[in-house]
Design goal:
Order of helices and strands: HHHHHHHHHHHHHHHHHHHHHHHH
Largest sheet: none
Radius of gyration: 33 Å
Shape: elongated
Bound molecules: zinc ion
Strand content: under 5%
Oligomer: single chain
Number of helices: 24
């Protein structure tokens, strides 16, 4: 059995380096040498939990505790917890001459200093440059404090009388969501799973964590409804979670004069929400607020009256956008926009709206679906040629990508066109129109209304524009662009 007092300083030097390596790299794949190191340290503490060396083992376990939230072998975390609890029981009420101890102000940022401090702590002859005297660090009550810090890292919220800490899981969540909501998800993030997971966390949240979890869902909702998420079930899941918790907030009263404005950027809103979703995070929020004099008091940021408002807003947003993105889309209003008074195509407007410019993005989805639907109803070859090209081009303009209902309608038209029986040879001598944007837009206007629009440089014959082989090529290119966006089963589900 080893005790710090029997150990030469070299040994504690080495040990604290090994412990520090585990602290820093706890989230590497399952590592049996980590398990061994934790078990050794826990055994030393368990052998004499009230002993003179307990402070070293308790600090060591506090350093390695992050690994115990990761992938320790079965039983490892429990052995550490048992030893830490025994040490806390044995040491926390010892009498001592100190009015305070270092653990009382030890936060997670100071964890990285522990490895450097431990050897000098054990060696009375070593230089000591720390703010607090050595005997406060070595005091049994300080050892008990570090044992509780370790316990709180392993099971967030399980220990009292220590500075609040954000759970490691919360830190991970903040960095994952921040990257995702900034538009640069980490390579290993499954976006749909990550967003759905926030809904599930809200559904299962403890009452105290519910307001924070709701704020996270509010933040990921903005992303989910932006068109970046192409699975209806993700939006469904978020809406269900909000519906489930709404009754807990609805009908509440409060004595607040008003409520704070919550962050309006996704990453900031998500971070605040995660912080408010744990006891440690809430305590840190409140400390920070008191220290800085900024921010609203905790009870206002999580006020049920405000949360009912947030839940209703989020739900309305989810329902509205779910309909737009995944519901059947009504395009009847587009007749007034793209047909002239005489009922013929407004070719000028169509040429203008098929220009690949950002200001046309907002028209692209409705126009594309309208053109695809009208293509199916039209018997006029020239109209059909224009409508097909409009549908093709708007799908390229759509940003970030066309919603399910639009893809469904456009694909149906394109697949019908691509499946049509084709003549073995083109019924025209010239080449097909170039699909390069400027040329095809000018050419399309001239083809459709030769008397109104002058021909471009490479003008093609009308037979070339209406050629079924050209149409099939356009359709096939559009199918290639759209086919991978949604799962076939979602495309097949009407409505
Ligand atoms: Zn003391
Ligand atoms: Zn209130
Ligand atoms: Zn042809």
């Amino acid at each position: 059995m080893k005790f710090v007092t029997d150990m030469d300083d070299m040994m504690l030097d080495e040990l604290s380096e090994i412990w520090d390596d585990i602290r820093e790299n706890y989230d590497t794949s399952n590592n049996s040498s980590y398990d061994r190191t934790v078990l050794d340290c826990a055994a030393d503490l368990a052998a004499d939990p009230g002993g003179d060396s307990a402070y070293a083992w308790a600090i060591g376990l506090a350093m390695m505790a992050p690994y115990l939230t990761w992938l320790p072998a079965a039983g490892v975390a429990q052995q550490a917890v048992t030893a830490l609890e025994a040490a806390d029981r044995a040491l926390r009420d010892r009498s001592c001459p100190h009015s305070s101890h270092p653990y009382e102000s030890h936060d997670d940022e100071a964890d990285e200093d522990l490895a450097g401090l431990l050897p000098a702590l054990a060696d009375e002859t070593a230089d000591w440059n720390e703010e607090r005297p050595r005997d406060e660090w070595r005091c049994p009550r300080n050892a008990a404090g570090f044992a509780r810090i370790a316990l709180d890292i392993v099971h967030p919220g399980s220990a009292t009388d220590i500075p609040p800490r954000l759970p490691l899981e919360a830190k991970d969540s903040i960095s994952t969501l921040s990257a995702l909501l900034h538009g640069y998800p980490k390579p290993w993030t499954d976006i749909n799973d990550e967003i759905s997971g926030q809904g599930a966390d809200l559904s299962h949240a403890d009452p105290a964590d519910r307001a924070g979890r709701l704020q996270v869902v509010r933040a990921v909702t903005w992303y989910a409804v932006s068109g970046m998420v192409r699975k209806k079930s993700v939006l469904d899941g978020l809406a269900e979670a909000v519906e489930k918790v709404l009754p807990h907030f609805a009908g509440s009263d409060c004595a607040h004069d008003g409520h704070p404005a919550l962050p309006d950027s996704g990453p900031n809103a998500a971070e605040l929400g995660i912080r408010l979703s744990s006891a440690g995070g809430r305590a840190i929020y409140e400390r920070g607020r008191i220290a800085s004099g900024r921010d609203a008091p905790l009870d206002e940021v999580v006020c049920p009256v405000l949360m009912a408002e947030i839940a209703n807003q989020t739900l309305a947003q989810l329902r509205e956008r779910r309909e737009e993105l995944f519901g059947e889309r009504d395009t009847s209003h587009a007749d007034a926009e793209y047909l002239r008074a005489d009922g013929r195509l407004d070719i000028e407007k169509l040429v203008e709206r098929t220009d690949h410019k950002s200001w046309n993005e907002k028209h692209a989805d409705d126009l594309g679906l309208w053109a695809a639907r009208r293509h199916g109803q039209s018997a006029d070859d020239r109209d059909r040629a224009v409508l097909l090209l409009v549908a093709h081009q708007t799908m390229k303009i759509s940003y970030p990508s066309p919603p399910l209902s639009v893809v469904r309608g456009v694909l149906a038209t394109m697949r019908a066109v691509a499946a049509a029986h084709l003549p073995a040879e083109c019924p025209h001598e010239d080449e097909h129109p170039a699909l390069r944007r400027a040329e095809f837009r000018a050419g399309m206007a001239h083809f459709w209304a030769p008397e109104e629009f002058t021909p471009g440089e490479d003008s093609r014959s009308a037979e070339s524009w209406t050629c079924p082989r050209f149409a099939a090529a356009v359709a096939e290119e559009t199918i290639r662009d759209l086919a991978g966006l949604y799962e076939e089963e979602e495309l097949a589900d009407a409505g």
